[in-house]
Amino acid sequence: MSSSPPKKQAVFIVSLVVLWYSSNIGVLLLNKFLLSNYGFRFPIFLTMCHMSACAILSYISIAFLKIVPLQKVKSRSQFAKIATLSIVFCASVVGGNISLRYLPVSFNQAVGATTPFFTALFAYLVTLKREAWITYGTLVPVVTGVVIASEGEPGFHLYGFIMCISATAARAFKSVLQSILLSSEGEKLNSMNLLLYMSPVAVLVLMPAAIIMEPNVMEVTLSLAKEHRYLWVLVLINSTLAYAANLLNFLVTKHTSALTLQVLGNAKGAVAVVISILLFRNPVTFIGIAGYSLTVIGVAAYGETKRRYR
């Protein structure tokens, strides 16, 4: 009888991981479908929909469902830091969504796997924090793999590649900034409360950007909605999945170790690549697969050496 609680805990964690994978991969594939295959070519507006859903659902989860206790913003200075993080986060999500208009999901994920390289770079440039030389050595295959994958990618698009690299760099910069800006005990926020405060700021930033850069968004969207009656349902599901991915990432982090999360994150990228190739039938080459595999091996080695030499 004593083995029942551990079994229940194991089933619970496995269920969390499956849901986390499903929401992450689901939002990624739906983004690609909407932006590239469906004619809904408005990455800024789509990101605004994601952030609106995150703002509303975060409030419901924290204020009513009590998933985590509400942490209050204590000063203007703290709010300014949160707003700065929100703007950088916006840049990363918009850049990633723009890249999906031009690049296959498989290559997008290969480029996204270089996040540790940019994190190490920004951590050194901003905080002068150095890792062990062996840790930096593991970043060589991370970058080399993407260079090889780029050479072997039939659907390579320079602008899409630049936007994808920019999004990856912005994501890494946000994580480094977060560790600096909200480092004092009085200012630390868990990821769910941070999302609660970042999302409305993101919506306020993205709304004028969408109006200026995507001026015909409502006209085209309404036209598409008449042609494809399920468009709004897809956008709603997509936006809800964007919040679910954040919530489940928080829950998986809470119930597993940092190392487990690192391994699961690496595997998630590989699963997304396989599913996207099967769904979108984008051509892949042996060189492209070899390059992405080298990047994943490098990322895994980076995580292991960072754990050992911290």
Automatic annotation (TrEMBL):
InterPro entries: EmrE-like (IPR037185), Sugar_P_trans_dom (IPR004853), TPT_transporter (IPR050186). Residues 14-302 form the Sugar phosphate transporter domain. Keywords: Membrane, Transmembrane, Transmembrane helix. The chain crosses the membrane at residues 12-30, 42-67, 79-100, 106-126, 133-150, 156-173, 194-212, 232-252, 259-280, 286-303. It comes from Acer yangbiense. GO terms for cellular component: membrane. It is found in: Membrane. This is Sugar phosphate transporter domain-containing protein. SUPFAM superfamilies: Multidrug resistance efflux transporter EmrE. The lineage of its organism: Eukaryota, Viridiplantae, Streptophyta, Embryophyta, Tracheophyta. The keyword Transcription does not apply. It is a multi-pass membrane protein. Its main location: membrane.
